[in-house]
Every structure is written in C-alpha cells, then in structure tokens.
C-alpha cells in the first residue's frame, strides 16, 4: 500500500458536496479543474501573449489557487477514507494527472516563489496560496518540492516565512508561516537541505519554543502529562528503597521537572493527578473530525485577534493552528538526529513536550509526535530520559487503541529507533512487562497491511534477534515463516517499497542465522578448550547481553567451524535447523538466486536503474551468505541444497550456484566469491571428515598415493558421492577451471582463485574427477599460477594459502610426494632445464653387494630358500654384518634401523699421554699430515672399499675374484634409473655425488649449503668423519659426511677474503678444537 505520507496533516475543512466518487460529479470536477489550470498557466491561456488585458486579476488567481488547493485536499481526504493500493483510478489520481499534463504548471509555481514575484510588498496572500497549492500536490510530488528547495534563494525565503513571529495578527501571515513550515516538513527529508537548515540557529530555537508553546496551550494534556511523570518518579523512588540502583546506570537518574511542570503540578486538580497515576489511557474513540474541532478550537483561542477569512476557500485560524502544530512537530523531528539540536532541545524540555502530546487523543498529533521521538532516539541521552519519564509505556499503550491501524508506520519507526542502540535495547528487554509488550507490537506490525510498517518491523527484529529473549519470542511466534513470505513476495515486486521490504527481510534472516551460527561456534570452542583454560581465558556469555555477530566476529566463527568440520558432522540437527528445513528455507533462498541469475542473463545491466541493480545484488549476497552458514553448520543440509529442484526453471540448486559463479554482472566479484564458498562447503562436506594425511613411502610414492586416493574416495559416504556425481554432471570442473584465471574484479581475484582451487580439491575426492584433471594437465596450469605474484599486493596472505592448496591438489592428482610437487611447480623453466642437465651428467654408482642382499631377502620372502642359500654361498654374503632390508616386516629391525639412522655423537677413545707424540712445529705437523693423506685412498674409493669389506667375507670366493667386468644388465639399468629418479627429486642436485645406498632409511638428497654465501675455496678432511670447507667470503663450515648435513658454521673477521688453507689441532688438542685459516688478504 502506498503509505509514504502516512500521518501527513490534512486540514479540517467542511466536506464539499461536489467532491465524490460519483462518475458524473468526477467528470464535472475534472472539467472545472482543467479550466482553472488553463487560466493559471499564462502560456496555456495565451500562447502568443496577445491579450494581456484579458488575463485574470491577482485576486482571482489567489481565489482560483485556493479553490484548486481545497479540491485536491478534499480528494485526498476521500482517498484516505477508502484506502486503496494506489491513487491511480481514484479522483485524486485523475486530478493530479490533469496537473501533470500541463508542462508549465509547476514551472509557474516555481516562478511565483522566486524573488521577482515573491518579494513584492503586500504579497503574503499570493505566497500563501502558492505554498498551499504545492502542499496539496505533495502526496505524489515530494521530489519536485525537494528539487525546488535546492535553490538557496527559495530555501532561505521559505525558511524566513516559516520563522515568522508567532504573535502575528495577520491571517495571511499566519497562513504563510503555516504553509511554509509544511513545505519544509517535506524538504527536510533530504539530508543536504537539512544540513543547511539545521545551521540556522534562530529558526531551530524558534521551532522548539513554538512546539513547547503548543504543548503548554493544551492545558488538559499538559496537566495529565505532568501528573503522569510525577507518578512514575514516585514509583521509582519506592522501588529504589528496596533495591539499590546500579552505579552509572542512566535509568537510575531522576528527571527534573521544568518550571512549567511544577506550576502545573501545583495548580492541577486532584482528579487530574489521580487519573494520571494510572497507566495512560489510549487515545479516545471520538471521530477524527471531532478531535480536529476540539484541538483547533482550543488553539484558536490563542489568536482571538485574527479575523475570519473574507475570501472563499481560505482556511481560518482554527485549522491553521492545528496544521501549524503538526508541521512544527514534524520539522523538529526531521532535524532531531542532528547533534547540534540536542542541547537546545533538552533545554526546551523536548521530553516533556513529547509526553504532553502523547496524552492527546488526536491521531495526527500522535503520528507526528511518534516520528519526532523516533528521530530523537538516535541520542542515548534523550532515550534514557524518555524511558525514565515513562514514555515507552505511553507508546506501547497505543496498541490497545482502535486507531492503532492508523499509527502502524509511526510506531514502526519508534521500534526501529529503540532497537538502533544495543544499550537501550538491553535496558528495555531486561524488564519483563515492557519486553513482552514491545515484541508483541513488533510481531503485530510484521503482519501490517502497510509496507512501510512491515519494513520497520523487519528491521526491528533484525536488530533485536541477537538477544536471547527476543530470539526465543521470534521463533515461538512463527517469525521465520513471516520472513520467508516477505522474501518470496519480493521476487516479483509491484512497487519499490516491496523490493526494499524483501531486501530487509533477507538481511533479517541473515542476522537470525548468524546468531545460531555464533552460538554453535562458541559451543564448539568450549568443548575443544580445556575446562581449566576456558574458565580463565574464555569470556562467558551473559544471558542479557547480545550475541556478537558483526563481520569480524562472523569470520572468527567461520574459522572455528572450518577447523572442526568433523565435529559438526557428528552433531545432531538442532531445532532451528529442523524448522528451517521444514519451512523450505533453502528453496526460498535458491529462488532469490534464480531471480538474480535469470535477470542478469536476459537484461543489459547498463539499462537498469542503479537502485534496482543494488537490490538484486544485495539480496543475492545475503542469500549466499546464509547458504554458506547452513552448509557449514549443518553439512547434511548441503545435499538438500544441491538437489533441490525449482519448479519454474527446472534447475537444481547446484546448477544455480554454478551459474551465479559465472555471472557477468558489474558487481560480480562478491557474487562469484559467495557462490564458490557455498560450492566448496558442499563438495568438501563429507570428504573433510574422512580425509586422512597421505603417507608417502620412501620406495614407492606412487603406489602409496594411489592407495590413499582410492581409499579416501571409496570411504566417502553416499551423500558425498551423490554431490560429487551431480557436480561432475553439471560442469563444475569447467566452471572452476575458468575461475582460476578470473581477473574481472581485482579486489576479489586472489580469493576467487583460492576458492576455485579448494573446490577442485574437494571434487578430486572422486576418482573420475581425478582422472579428468590429470588428463587436462591441471598441474601445469596451477604451476604457472603458483609462480605468478598475487593480483594485489595486499592479498599476499591469500596467495600463500592458494599456493598450499594448489600444491596439495597437484600432489593429489599427480600421485607424487608433496615435496616433489612443490619444486616441480615452483621452479622456473630455466631452473628445470639446469637441473635436468645436472641429473643427466651425474654418474650414478652403488654397491652391488647391497643389491645381492636385497635379492636374497626377496627370495626368502617368497619361499625360495634353496635359491637364496645358493646365492648366499656363491656370492659369499655376510648377512650378519649386512643391514636388514627395509622390506622385511620385522618391528625390532625397524626400530634398530631408526635408532641407527639417528645421528649420535661418536665416542672418542681416551688416549693416554704415552701415545701423544712429541711437540712438533706447525710446518712439521703439516708435512706429516700431507704424507699420510698421500698414502691413503680418496674419500670415494675409501667409502666403496669399506662397504665392500663390511658386506663381504674376508676371504673372497675364487669365482668372484676371477670374474671379469660384467656389462650392465636389465636389473642394473632399472636400479640406476630408480636412483637417478631420486636424484632428480633433489631440490638442489649436484653432478658429483657419492655412491647411492640401496638400504638407507632415507631417500637420497644432495647437500645444499643454504647457510653459506660464497663458493668453496678450501677443504680439510678430519679423522672423525667430518670435513671443513672454506669459502671465498671468509666462512668455515663443518660438515658431517655420513649424515650429509652442516653441524657448524663460523665467519672470520670482516673483509677476510677467500680462505686458502685450513688447519686444526685435532691430533694434539687436549680440550677444544682450534682452527687456523689462511686468506688471500
């Protein structure tokens, strides 16, 4: 229903007989209006300006304007008596259309407000008639009035007229002040105009004083209000004796009565005081016309010196005073949110004025006062003062009035204003009577026939659902069912207000789900944290405090639930989730997304109004955020969301989500991100609980990875397989691959790339998807993206997560160890070519005896004992001295191997002083060591010789001694290829390597000096299995040869240069090691 101007004051004038819904009367009235407009518009009357003497006089023009204004006002009153959805087709609609047909009609009114016409002397009657005619067209012409006030000269002129002295004795002056205030009551709805007017201190002060003047003029209401406030303070004084008020609570401060209140209290009769001691009565059931006459008559007594109008169709003093009161209250209310006005308003007792006007029985006065209160509630000081004075009880008492239906929008604005401050809301909901009455009024307004009232009620519940008491009341009275109906009605809106209502309903639903989502996250965190730790570190939620559901807290809750996905899968379905599913909530949200998808696919976004595009996008965003929380908090609901079929479009939920992810809307970044988040939750719902860390064997990474892939895929339950199958059928792989290169929205590009990779990782749990991705060479695409920088530098953390997820996907699809995948994906092409050349040029060697021992163990494991014994005797294998094979499933041997592989410091034998040589000079010791080294074999020959001596018997078999050099066999080629593959997987391969070990517990890795900066220039072997290396940067490294790792690093003095010589005291030392270095400088 079109209720944009609910509560707009209408003059109390006698009804004219010619204004009715009779077709004949309507036709005659339309003809008369057409003739008058023709006379008022000069160009329409005389387009060639040839008969200036035939134009109507100024007095006739004023009379015609007043008649036209009165006709429009009467038609508006008739329309409000029989409320329809729109004015089109009614008498007021026909009359306003006639005015719109004249292009120069409103231009004529604008010219009459400009300086040339408005500043003439004795022109108050004409200016008043022009302002009244503009007000008569205001129900459908508010934008024109606001645009008219953008002219600073006209705005200053109208403000000066509205700021006229209240003691004026001129009827036209009173009319002009009243109608100018009415124009400002519409113009102040625009913030830019209100910013200018509020800086006019004299105008704001006079408005406040005028409002207080009218409140004092209503003596009966003023006395009742004073008695009511005194009774409220007495009750609080009595209750404070039994209960000590909390320190610092605003409600505990007593409100001081003004001087006028005290005078009225002393002069008020006892009957008025006793009547006000009870709860305030609702507005009386008298007719609106009687109320107008009663208040107008009492206000007209203030200006008895003003005579009655002498011109027909002009308003007299009595209705003008009532209109001036209503327009004054509205102007004060529209500027009530400004902090500049608060001090002056409190000084003029705006709270007492509001309480006084709420004791009135006039519906329009109530409506205007409620709007004033709703604006001033933006200030906490006013809100606590109003609550302390008992104003909330007066507002809630209106629900019992038969005129409650006429106050829906104003009451909705008050509820919205009360809920805007969490502190005020917490104070109200802490009181049982007011809490129930307030929430009951909100539920009643949620079903109001007025769209604006329903919108304010929806926003009210969106702000109060974080409180547990409001949440329970909302669920107990089917608030969720009402929200779903409002959202569905907004899919095909008939007016802009219905679009806004559906938007606010989606926002309220998101807040509702966020509250339950936060409660679930806090419960999971309390379960996972130790009881002793939680009591000291975690803050317990107070019952009366709201649940924190802002964006920052929401992201924290999402992180908690993502970290505890297996726990959410084991949780039982809660009551609100059951109710949400029973009311087909996922279907309602998917319908919203389908409307967005179908509209963006068939309509050019540039041809749409901006407000309509924002409405579409924000509704879709709210729906996606709700679906994300549902799939994360209740994983079984993901199956219903994906398989839900829409009857109109015959599309499944997963198809709609994928279409939203591929949208081309100008604001597609948020939509694509939200859709991918829901898809990731759906495809990763069941697999995340069954996911096990992959264990890669040192001997066969590929076999182990295959086994893990097949086991994780087959371990997925039936709902997971159903979702993955549906995703494969709906081209989810294609959508995710295309989004890997998404760059339309640079702000969201990195996050969308991460989400697309996570979706592919979830889809890869299906072996069919894994095969498809492997054939499409997904590893090469992801490797290129990994080596690139993030799209935006501030998204470096998101890009790091993308690298981890992409490497995991590559490892899963290619069935390779994660370390190999990392280097394969991150190394540039030049580095790959260099590593390949190094591996190809490396001479691969190994001990043949180790291969024979492995063959012997293999024969034994397959029951070929005779063949194994023959091989042992012929090859003269010493199996006791050989290392046990890692393939033997012997736990003790494995433990021994692990212990052997652990580096331990070698125990040095104690030497007696008798074995110490005599003291030699440095040159003698150096010559002695050089002679020893020349007689000893090299490091590589020594290693091979030592291993062959350990693995073979002391006496070699004659057959092996005389056997010539054998050419490489097929088995030798396979072993060498396997060892070369290990060498290829090294992060930093080198061309010269020691012999490979077939029985080592760790795979081969080439040594990389990541700590030293320079190149090697000197080396010295030590007797305990270490080697000292010198660099051209003056660094000395001590390296353990068997463990192939650096155990010490020293740096010489600055600018030492390249080290050319290294010497130690390892043979002569008695305590610590001493090193001497020679440099080029």
Automatic annotation (TrEMBL):
Principal location: nucleus
InterPro entries: ARM-type_fold, LisH, VPRBP/DCAF1
Signal peptide: none
Cellular component GO terms, alphabetical: Cul4-RING E3 ubiquitin ligase complex; nucleus
Compositional bias (Basic residues): 905-915
Alphabetical keyword list: Nucleus, Ubl conjugation pathway
Stored SUPFAM superfamilies: ARM repeat
Chain residue ranges for the region called Disordered: 1-21, 237-292, 686-713, 888-915
Amino acid composition bias (Low complexity), ranges on this chain: 266-277, 704-713
Domain of life: Eukaryota
Location relative to the cell: Nucleus
GO biological process per UniProt: protein ubiquitination
Pathway listed: Protein modification; protein ubiquitination
Biased composition (Polar residues): 686-696
Heme found in the keyword field: no
Matching PANTHER family: DDB1- AND CUL4-ASSOCIATED FACTOR 1, VPRBP PROTEIN-RELATED
Protein's UniProt name: Uncharacterized protein
Organism of derivation: Aphanomyces astaci
